[in-house]
Design goal:
Two copies of one chain form a homodimer. By secondary structure, chain A is of the alpha+beta class. Helices cover 32% and strands 27% of the residues of chain A. Chain A has three domains: 22-234, Glycosyltransferase (Alpha/alpha barrel); 248-374, Chondroitin AC/alginate lyase (Glycosyltransferase), CATH 1.50.10.100; 380-734, Beta-galactosidase, Chain A, domain 5. In chain A, the strands form six sheets. In chain A, strands 8, 9, 10, 11, 12, 13, 14, 15, 16, 17, 18, 19 and 20 form a 13-stranded antiparallel beta sheet that branches. In chain A, strands 3-4-5-6-7 form a five-stranded antiparallel beta sheet, with no helix packed on it. In chain A, helix 6 (109-125) packs antiparallel against helix 7 (149-166). The interface between A and B is large, with 52 and 52 residues.
C-alpha cells in the first residue's frame, strides 16, 4: 500500500492512545512480520554455504518447485473439515507461505508471481462468497473459505506473511486489488465481523487476533493492532494480551494440557515475534514475567521420551517434534541462547526457514547443543496458578523414570474427569498408563476421524484413569461445567535429595467426599533404584463403594493371592460411566498383609504394585473392550482395588520396578518383587512408611503439616529422627 | 601333556584307519582349536592399536578383571536348570574361556593361573561326583555337574578351549592332574559313558561329539576324534559328519526352524573350525557342498528386521544378534570374505575375540561392509531337501515386505501343527502374525520359565496359525509322530520380475482331505506397491467344517459387511484344540462378492484382506485369552473364515497394504482399500485372477501345471496372453 508519508502521519496523529506514540514505527519495509529484512540478508548469506539451514532451504525449494508447474487451484468452498476444498485451501496457504520464503531467499520472481497469482485468484473469489455452505447450524463462528472461522484465521496468519514476503515484487495495481478485495475483507470479517470469537479469551481468539494484528502491521492499520491486542473496544477485556494473561498459568501451563498447549502456542509465538519486530518497545516477550517463553518451555517439560504426557484429550503419538514446537523452540533459543533448546531442536530434526531458524541451524552446525534439562516441577494451573497443579517428578536412578501427578483443574471441554490421577514411565515406556483420547485422527471409517463416541463414554470417565471412583460414577458426575468451577488443591510439592513428593486434595469431585492423595518418587540410593509411594485417603460423610483402578501396560506375570478367573465367559463390569466398556476377567481378595500384582512391560522390566491391605480390598482384573461394537477401543488391561460400604479408606502402595527379562540373551533377573515389608503409621502430621526391600530397611517420612516444611524431630520405634523438608528417607540398616 | 615325540609316534602307528595317515598332524602347539597360534600372534598385534577388536578386547578384559579378585567357586552340584549351582557352573566355563583369551592376549600369567585354579578345583570335585541329584527320573542323559549331560557337553566345549588357551602356563603336574582327574573322565563320560546321546543324530549329540572331539585334539587322542566324527563304533551311523548330513537339508535348513537352528549352529561352527585347524585335509567346510556355510547363511535369511521368523517353538525377540550367530557370521566371513556378512556383523554389534573375529573387526574398521542381500528363497526341508520346504518371498516395492510360507515338515518335538501357514511382514512390523512359543523364558512365576501348558494347548495347535482347520481339530490330530512321518509337498517356487509365487499341498494332515495353497507376492509396478494373493483349495471325500484363521496385529478399522458383536458377554469359541482359548467377539456373513476386513498396524499403515465370497463364508472375530487362568497368553486378535458342511471350497483373497496414519503430523492417507474387483478363473492348469485396484486393471496368471514353467499361450476375455514362467502379471489398461 503506497500511501504518501504525510497522509500516513496525519492518520497516526488522529489516534490518541499514548502507547501509540511510543509504539508504532512508520513502516516502509517488507517483510517485517516473523521474518525481517535483517533476517533475510542473513538467510540469503547463509544459503551460499553448506549447512543444515541450506539443506532445509533446498528441501523446501524442491517441494515448492514440484508444485509450481501445476495451475493455481482456488476452488469454491464446499466441503467441511477433511473434505477436498477444505484441504485444498489449507494446502494453498502453506504453498503461498513456502513460495514466499523461497522468493526472498532465491530472489527469483517466479516464486513471487506464483504467490501473486494465487492471491489474485483468492481476491477474485472472496468477494463472491457468503458464509460457508458446510458451516454448522447455529454456529457462532462460521467461515467463508472454511466451514469455521478458526481455519480462516489460520489461513490469514499464513497468507498475510506470504503477502508480506512477496510485497516488493507486486505492482501497485495488484497490491490494491489484493488488499481491498481479499486481505482487508478477511481481516474485517474475522474482527468486526465476529466480535464474540475475536474477543474470546480462547485459542480460537488467539488465531483471529494474530491474523488481524499482523494484517495491521503489513497494511499500516495500527488500529487493527490495538484491537488485536486489547479487544475490539480496546478495553483490554479481550485481545491477545488478555489471552496471554488468562490462558496460561504464571508458570506457563495451558489449562487443556500439553497436547492442546502445543497447538495453542503457534499463534502466540507467531504474533509475538511480529509485535516484537515492529514494536519492540511493547516488550511482548517480557509480558507477565516472560510467560510466553515459560509456555514454550513447559510444553517441552511436559513430555517423556519425546511424546507429550497424554492427559485429557490427547493423541498419544504427538510429541516435541510437532511443527508448532519447532517454531516455539526456535523462538526460545533465539531469545535465550540456552543450549538445551538446541538439544530439543536436534531431536525435532527440522529447521525453520526464518531468522530464528537460522540461529538454531548455525548453533547446531557448530555442535553447541547441550542436554536439555528435564526437571521435577509443579506447574500451577489456572490463570492465577492456584487452580491446582500438574506435577512432574523425574529420576535417573536405576532407570529413566517420570511420574505425572494430576491435581490439576478440569481443562475445559477437552478435560478428563481424572482428578488426582497419575501416570508412570520408565526406561522409555509407559508403565502405568492413561488411555488418552479415543480417536483415530482423520480416519474416515472411525467416526469420520473425529473424537469417537467412546471418548465420552470411556476415555473421559474417571474409571479410565488411575484415580478414585465413588459408587461407579465419575468426578463431578461427568459435568464439565461443574468440573471447570472446582479445581483440586495442590497441598505441597517438594524435590530434594531423597526424591520428590507432592500431595493434592479435592472435596468437590463427589458431594460429601474428600479425596487426598500423596505421591512420592523415592530414591533408594543403596539399591540404585527408585520406587513410587502412593497414599490415597478417602473420607466421606456416608458409606460408599470406592474403586481405585490401575491401568498397566504389559503382561500380567503374577499375583501373590488367589484369583478367580472367568475362563469360560466374560461379562461387563458395570452399566455406565465407563464401566460398561470393561470386561471382568477375574477377581481376588487378598488376605490382610501385602497384596502384590506383577507385570512385565515391553521394555523388558518387571513392575510390582505392593499394597498394604486389611482383607477388605477386592481386586478386579479388567480388560477394555465391552460395548464396543465397532472395535474402536484398544484392549488394554487394568486392575481395580475395590472396597464396599466404607466411609473411610486408605489405599497405601508401592510401585517397584525390578529385574530384567532378556530372551534375546536368554536370561531373566529378579522377576520377583523384593519388597518384603510395608507398614504405614501416622504420627501427628507425619506419614511414616517402613519399607523392607532387597534386604534393606527404610523409613520414609513425609511431613504433611499445613505450615510446611520446617525442621521436626520425631521418634520411630524408639529411635530419634529428624526431618527438615517434606520428604526424608532413612536407611535403617545404618542406624 | 608332555609326551616324548617317539612315544607319540608309536601310538599313532598302532592306529589303522587310512584316514588317520592322512589326517592327524602331530600336535605340540597350544592353542590350536578355534584359536590357533597364528591367530594369537595376529590378535596380540591387533590390540596394540585402536580399533573395534581392541575395544572388544578391553571390554572383555574389564569383565574378567572384575571377577578375578573373587575366590574361585566350584559348588557341589545340587540344583536343576536355573538354580544356583547350575548357573554357577555355567558362569564358570564362560569365565575360564574368557580368562584364557585374556591370558593369550595379555600374556599375563595371572589369568592363566585363575583358569588353572578353577580347573584344579573341578579336578578335585569331579572324581567325587555321582550322577546329578536333580536329574530327571529315568533320564537317558543325566550329567554329573549338571542335571542333564547336554549342559555337561557345553561345559566341555568351553572348558577344553580354556584349557588349550592356558596350557603353556601349566606345570606338568597340573596338566597331569587336570587331564586325568577332570578332562579325560568328562570326555569318557560323555562318549563311552552315554553312547545313546553321543551317537544320536540330534543337536545334543553335536555338543557331545564337539566336546569330546576337541578334547581328542588337545589331549592327543585321535581315536576320540574318530569316534566323534564317525560314531563310537566308527561306523558312520552316528557322529558329527552324520549329523551334518542329516540335521540340515542340502540348502542348510534345520528341521526345527531358525530359532533352534541358531542354537544348533554353535557346536557345529566350533568343532568344524577346530577340525579344519588341526586336519585341513578333512575339508570339513567343503563337506556336503559346504552345508555348514549354507546353514549359517540360511539362519540369516530366515530373519526379518533382525528377528528370526518365529515358526514352531520360538521366542519372538530372538534374532541375528544372538551369540551363536555372531560366531557363525565370523566364520562365514572368514571363509568367504563376502562383505554382506560384515553388514550382519555390524548389526550384531559384537566382536568375537578370535582369529575370525579379528578379520571381521579389521574389515569393519576399514568400512568394507556392504548390504547383505536378503532374497526370495525356498529352503528344502529334511535331510534330502524333499520333505516340503520353507519359503521366503521378499519385496522392496513400496514397502519392505516379507512373506513366509510354510509347506515344511513337522520339525520334531518343537514343531507346530501349521502345515501351509503363512506370515507377513511390512515396514519393519509383523502384520499377519504367528504366536510363536507360549513361554516366558526363565520367569519362575510363569511355569518355572519352561514352555507353558498353553504352548501345547494353544500355540502348537492349528487354529493358532494362518492355515486351514478341519472340524476344529489340528493337523495330524495333534500327533507329532504322525506329523514327523508326513511332510507337505512343495509343488513349485519361482521368483521373477512379477514377484514370487509358491504352491504347496498336503493330503495327510487330515484323513481324506487334500489341502493345497498357492501364495504369491505380486509387484504392481505402476502402483509402486506389492500385494499378496492367497488361493487355498480344500477337497475332501466327505463334508466338513473348514476354518481359515488370519491372525493380525493391529486395530480393526472396518469391515464392508455387517458385524454382530458380542457387546455384553463373551463366550469361548470351542472346547479343544486351541479353540478353548479363543473368545468370540463377533461375527458376520458377507453377501456374495468382495468381503473386506481392514486393520491399522502400529507401523502406521493400513492393511485390507479382500476375499472373494459366495455368501457361504462366515467371519468369526476372536481374541486370545479364554481358559487362561494364569494370564499366560497375549490377547491378540484374529478373524476366522468358516464354511460348514463342505466337500470342496476355495478361499481366494488379496492382502493389500495401503495408506498411512500419521497422527504426529496430523494426516491420514488412503485409509480405505482401493481394490474394487477380484475375480478368479481356472483355465486348465492356469489360475487367472483379475484385479482392479486404484484404477488399474490387472490380470495375474499362475501356471500350476505339473510339468512346470514352460511357455504357454492362452486367451482371457477374448484377448491373447502368453506366460513363460509360473507367474505373470499383465496391466490390462495398457492393452
Amino acid at each position: 500500500m503506497k500511501v504518501p508519508l504525510l497522509l500516513l502521519t496525519t492518520k497516526w496523529l488522529t489516534l490518541t492512545a499514548f502507547a501509540l506514540l511510543l509504539s508504532f514505527n512508520v513502516q516502509a519495509m517488507h517483510p517485517n512480520l516473523v521474518i525481517t529484512q535483517t533476517d533475510v540478508i542473513a538467510m540469503r548469506n547463509a544459503v551460499t554455504e553448506p549447512g543444515s539451514f541450506t539443506t532445509a532451504y533446498y528441501a523446501l525449494k524442491a517441494r515448492v518447485d514440484q508444485q509450481m508447474p501445476f495451475p493455481v487451484i482456488v476452488p469454491v468452498p464446499k466441503d467441511g473439515g477433511g473434505g477436498y476444498t477444505h484441504e485444498r485451501h489449507k494446502k494453498n496457504y502453506q504453498l503461498m507461505y513456502n513460495a514466499g520464503i523461497v522468493y526472498q531467499l532465491s530472489q527469483d520472481k517466479a516464486y513471487a508471481h506464483y504467490v501473486r497469482d494465487m492471491l489474485l485468484a483468492y481476491a477474485k473469489l472472496y468477494p463472491t462468497l457468503d458464509l460457508h455452505p458446510a458451516r454448522k447450524v447455529r454456529s457462532q463462528n462460521p467461515g467463508k473459505l472454511f466451514w469455521q472461522s478458526l481455519n480462516e484465521a489460520v489461513w490469514l496468519v499464513h497468507t498475510i506473511q506470504a503477502y508480506d514476503l512477496v510485497y516488493d515484487a507486486l505492482s501497485g495495481q495488484d497490491i490494491e486489488k489484493i488488499e481491498s478485495e481479499l486481505l482487508r475483507p478477511v481481516a474485517l470479517f474475522l474482527s468486526e465481523g465476529q466480535p464474540s470469537t475475536f474477543n474470546k479469551v480462547h485459542n480460537h481468539g488467539t488465531w483471529a487476533t494474530a491474523g488481524v494484528g499482523m494484517a495491521g502491521y503489513v497494511m499500516d492499520e495500527p488500529e487493527w493492532v490495538e484491537k488485536a491486542l486489547y479487544d475490539l473496544d480496546k478495553s483490554g477485556n479481550g485481545g491477545f494480551l488478555r489471552q496471554l494473561d488468562e490462558l496460561f498459568s504464571p508458570q506457563g501451563y495451558y489449562n487443556e494440557g500439553p497436547y492442546y498447549q502445543r497447538y495453542a502456542l503457534m499463534p502466540f509465538v507467531t504474533f509475538a515475534r511480529a509485535i516484537d519486530n515492529n514494536e519492540p518497545q511493547r516488550k511482548i516477550f517480557q509480558h507477565r514475567n516472560g510467560v510466553l517463553l515459560k509456555a514454550i518451555d513447559t510444553t517441552i517439560q511436559l513430555s517423556y521420551g519425546g511424546l507429550f504426557f497424554p492427559i485429557n484429550d490427547a493423541i498419544k503419538s504427538k510429541g516435541i517434534d510437532t511443527i508448532e514446537l519447532v517454531h516455539g523452540v526456535a523462538l526460545a533459543y533465539s531469545l535465550t541462547e540456552d543450549p538445551g533448546y538446541l538439544d530439543i531442536a536436534e531431536r525435532q530434526g527440522q529447521i525453520i526457514l526464518s531468522g530464528e531458524g537460522l540461529k538454531v541451524a548455525k548453533a547446531l552446525d557448530k555442535g553447541l547443543a547441550e542436554p536439555y534439562q528435564f526437571n521435577s516441577l509443579a506447574f500451577g494451573d489456572g490463570s492465577d496458578g492456584k487452580q491446582g497443579a500438574l506435577v512432574v517428578m523425574r529420576s535417573e536412578l536405576g532407570g529413566h523414570q517420570a511420574l505425572l501427578f494430576k491435581p490439576a483443574a478440569q481443562g475445559l471441554g477437552h478435560g478428563h474427569f481424572d482428578k488426582l490421577t497419575w501416570q508412570y514411565y520408565d526406561q522409555g515406556n509407559e508403565i502405568v498408563s492413561d488411555y488418552g483420547a479415543a480417536r483415530f485422527l482423520n480416519v474416515e471409517a472411525k467416526y469420520g476421524g473425529r473424537y469417537l463416541p467412546e471418548n465420552e463414554s470411556y476415555a473421559k470417565q474417571t474409571v479410565a484413569h488411575n484415580t478414585l471412583v465413588v459408587d461407579e460414577t465419575s468426578h463431578f458426575d461427568g459435568d464439565v461445567e461443574v468440573g471447570n468451577q472446582n479445581a483440586p488443591t495442590l497441598n505441597y510439592f517438594e524435590t530434594n535429595q531423597f526424591g520428590a513428593v507432592a500431595s493434592g486434595e479435592i472435596h468437590t469431585a463427589y458431594p460429601g467426599v474428600k479425596l487426598e492423595r500423596t505421591l512420592a518418587l523415592i530414591n533408594l540410593v543403596e539399591l540404585e533404584k527408585t520406587i513410587v509411594l502412593d497414599v490415597f485417603d478417602v473420607g466421606a460423610s456416608g458409606a460408599h463403594q470406592l474403586d481405585l483402578p490401575l491401568h498397566y501396560l504389559g503382561q500380567l506375570i503374577d499375583t501373590n493371592f488367589e484369583l478367580s478367573v472367568n475362563t469360560k465367559q466374560l461379562s461387563v463390569l458395570g452399566s455406565e460411566n465407563g464401566y460398561q466398556h470393561l470386561w471382568l476377567k477375574g477377581c481376588g481378595q487378598p488376605e490382610p498383609g501385602l497384596a502384590k500384582v506383577s507385570w512385565l512391560n515391553d521394555n523388558g522390566r518387571f513392575y510390582t504394585l505392593t499394597s498394604l491391605v486389611k482383607g477388605d480390598e477386592e481386586y478386579l482384573f479388567t480388560q477394555i473392550g465391552a460395548n464396543d461394537p465397532n472395535f474402536n477401543l484398544r484392549n488394554e488391561q487394568a486392575f481395580i482395588r475395590r472396597v464396599k460400604n466404607k466411609k473411610q479408606h486408605q489405599f497405601v502402595s508401592i510401585l517397584e520396578p525390578h529385574g530384567e527379562y532378556n530372551p534375546r540373551k536368554e536370561y531373566t533377573l529378579d522377576a520377583q518383587s523384593k519388597l518384603t515389608e510395608l507398614a504405614y503409621t501416622g504420627q501427628d502430621d507425619l506419614a511414616l512408611v517402613k519399607i523392607s526391600i532387597a534386604g534393606m530397611h527404610y523409613l520414609v517420612a513425609v511431613n504433611q503439616s499445613a505450615e510446611g516444611a520446617i525442621k521436626r524431630d520425631f521418634q520411630y520405634q524408639g529411635k530419634p529422627f529428624s526431618i527438615a523438608g517434606r520428604l526424608a528417607v532413612y536407611a535403617l540398616n545404618d542406624l
